Description:
- This protein is an alpha+beta fold.
- It has six helices and four strands.
- A hairpin with a 6-residue loop joins strand 1 and strand 2.
- Helix 3 runs antiparallel to helix 4 (98-105) and helix 4 (98-105) packs antiparallel against helix 6 (172-185).
Amino acid sequence: MPVRKLSEPQVVRGALDAPTVRLDGSRAAAATIARKRAVFHDVLGCAVELGLLPANPVSQVRWTAPRATTVVNPQVVASPAQVRALLAEVAGLRPELTAFFGCLYYPALRPEEAVALRQADLMLPPHGRGKLTLTGVCPHTGSAWTSTGTPYEPRGLKQRPDGTVRVVPVPPVLVGLLRQHLREYGTAGRPAVPRRPGRHAT
């Protein structure tokens, strides 16, 4: 398609509408739609700089992104009793992963955030609530795709400036799971997340 066709409103609207639907026909997440719209806008901005378009057509089309759904469907969220049953099942099959899955539920960490936790990031009092200081993430991307040659590549926290930390309170039940994990399995085998100077909390 010639670049000049992108000046036509119907073409631009079609390009903006496309990322709002996933391949399975369901509605895409609002953050995904916003990110792809921003990329599309930047690409057309480059076309303007190169003299291929007179102006960015995205700015000239009245288009509103679909609103994000703010209501959580309770039918798809595990109840506290179900979570206790799930963690008990994990404890019977892979006890070394019990605290990991506890971190995904109680403070709602991303998997890559839970993997990156180190003992220095934990405040686990004998009684009461504790806290986790998140300093980075370790997404599993495969050793063929990292610059470190390992399956994990340490990065900063998602969608936050480099050097940011995030302090997360945790309930006593997770404090107990983490203390038990450290007591029985220690910290061996976790990927290292290098600290960066000048971190600030959010």
